[in-house]
Amino acid sequence: MIISVASGKGGTGKTTVAVNLALSLNGNVQFLDCDVEEPNAHIFLKPEITERHSVSIPVPKVDEEKCTYCGKCREVCAYNAIAVMKNVILIFPELCHGCGGCTLLCPKKAIKEVGKEIGVMQIGKAGIIEFINGKLHIGESMATPLIRAVKKNILNGKIVIIDAPPGTSCPVIESIKGSDYCILVTEPTPFGLNDLMLAVEVVRKLKIPFAVVINRAGLGDNKTEEYCQKENIPILMEIPFCKDIAVSYSKGIPIVDALPQYKIYFRELLTNIINYVEEGKN
Ligand code: SF4
Ligand code: SF4
User: Fold this and answer.
1) Mean pLDDT over all residues of the chain?
2) Number of C-beta neighbours around residue 79 at 10 A
3) How far is the CA of 98 from the centre of ligand 2 (A)?
């Protein structure tokens, strides 16, 4: 079963929910940190990393002996990663999405693909949790191939918790697609509500069952509750805006370790989701 944890906005407590959910289980759990531009679940889970793998995308390399500067490759590249002048061809690997179109369509077979490392994937263990994350190199923009590489480690029969990137763009969609359930974490502020509404549109489009967890409940107004009620979206948990939780977060201590009663709340959250998903399958 794959449960992704997402949020329309950064800093809402998405990683907090994902980490504590994984820690509330007694085993058989994989944790995937797909927030590859800024992975931070390791700060709380403190995994022992045992494997590191380079992740590359194929980028074109032109053999100028064969190239006639016809410009066909520039025409097919939707990402402006190729410039062709009279007697010069330039490739901009940072803009290349590795689609392979230019290689395929070059009439002179002058292009071959070479690997360009965009980041690393790390695999390890955090106690009984199997931990995998991706780290995109600074300056790289292609997060989705790295997220795909991380997700290839998903094993059948495990409970898989995915910490998705914030926002509603391609990396989020790549992270949450295929999930059995998605938790949208928000905070009760106007910004939180605005970005929650965008995230709701995305999960609805992807047809993933979802519910909301409100973090820092009590901080702002009750417009998030009103919106969820109007849209028939269940609120499965509210984590209060409280000093003890903020202090444990600032020290990199998961809530379930600092305040053990929360283990029961996170287990309840998980049980509700599992029951919902299992009922849906029957
Ligand atoms: S399509 Fe091939 S031959 Fe034409 S400019 Fe590009 S690399 Fe050169
Ligand atoms: S592989 Fe695709 S994105 Fe990259 S340069 Fe070629 S056409 Fe453009």
Assistant:
1) 94
2) 13
3) 5
